[in-house]
Amino acid sequence: MRYLTYLLPLMFFITTACGGGSGDQQQQADETTTEAQSSAADQSGVRTIEIIGIDQMKFAVESDEDGISTGGETGDYLLLESISAEPGEEIRVVLTTESDLPATAMAHNFVLLTLSADVDAFVNAASQAKDNDYIPADMSDQIIAHTELAGGGETVEVTFTAPEETGEYEYVCSFPGHYAAGMRGTLNVE
């Protein structure tokens, strides 16, 4: 009986130690993999900003992060107001559209315009450029970077270098009516 008093706690310790150890090792392996992936992204020197295009015709993000400014909330998202960048910084914008509507009724893109662009004229011309995914070909000199259109469930991206000249560069969604509804913001190069 005396042996059982010592044997039971010992068996419990061995059982829990063995079971917990493999979980700890798996957790450490997962953390190492995540850290390696983050390091690879950091080493590329490209900052990635993940944006969601929503049915309310707004650019949104899942959470606050360095280098972006957000406004109010809409559902599970924060409304994106602006992005800050250093002159010459490389930025990747990844845009995902969340919508159940057909792409002909609801699609989004990200178009970054030059400092001297006439935004209203650009958006008006874009609404007539359906055959070119609402990117007016004759105004390409006013575009720094743009994505393709993304319908519901689709993701598009563009990588660009922030201009060297400091200032407030506007970005818009050029799908008809979206700019007027507030699907716009500024890239603040400072």
From TrEMBL:
<feature type="domain" description="Blue (type 1) copper">
    <location>
        <begin position="81"/>
        <end position="190"/>
    </location>
</feature>
<dbReference type="GO" id="GO:0005507">
    <property type="term" value="F:copper ion binding"/>
</dbReference>
<dbReference type="GO" id="GO:0009055">
    <property type="term" value="F:electron transfer activity"/>
</dbReference>
<keyword id="KW-0813">Transport</keyword>
<keyword id="KW-0479">Metal-binding</keyword>
<dbReference type="InterPro" id="IPR033138">
    <property type="entry name" value="Cu_oxidase_CS"/>
</dbReference>
<dbReference type="Pfam" id="PF00127">
    <property type="entry name" value="Copper-bind"/>
</dbReference>
<feature type="region of interest" description="Disordered">
    <location>
        <begin position="22"/>
        <end position="43"/>
    </location>
</feature>
<keyword id="KW-0186">Copper</keyword>
<dbReference type="InterPro" id="IPR008972">
    <property type="entry name" value="Cupredoxin"/>
</dbReference>
<dbReference type="InterPro" id="IPR028871">
    <property type="entry name" value="BlueCu_1_BS"/>
</dbReference>
<dbReference type="InterPro" id="IPR000923">
    <property type="entry name" value="BlueCu_1"/>
</dbReference>
<feature type="compositionally biased region" description="Low complexity">
    <location>
        <begin position="24"/>
        <end position="37"/>
    </location>
</feature>
<keyword id="KW-0732">Signal</keyword>
<feature type="signal peptide">
    <location>
        <begin position="1"/>
        <end position="19"/>
    </location>
</feature>
<protein>
    <submittedName>
        <fullName>Azurin</fullName>
    </submittedName>
</protein>
<dbReference type="InterPro" id="IPR050845">
    <property type="entry name" value="Cu-binding_ET"/>
</dbReference>
<keyword id="KW-0249">Electron transport</keyword>
